[in-house]
Amino acid sequence: MLTESGIEVKDIPAGIEYHKRIGKEATYEFYLNVTSDIIELTNVEGINLMTGNRISGSINLGGREYLVLKNKL
Description:
- This protein is an all-beta fold.
- It is built from no helices and five strands.
């Protein structure tokens, strides 16, 4: 139903809280590991705003860690 409505669906592992915000020049994706376990995120891409490094592919988030990615529109 979401796909038919044109709403983007993102496959997120259990234990990850995800939010996406769209600005005038970029999109921002927020990932928060709400567990104490290490969780692997796959199919992520963008500039890590905490480190300035580009991420393309997979990354592990430790317990209670977060990730903010920026992508230009």
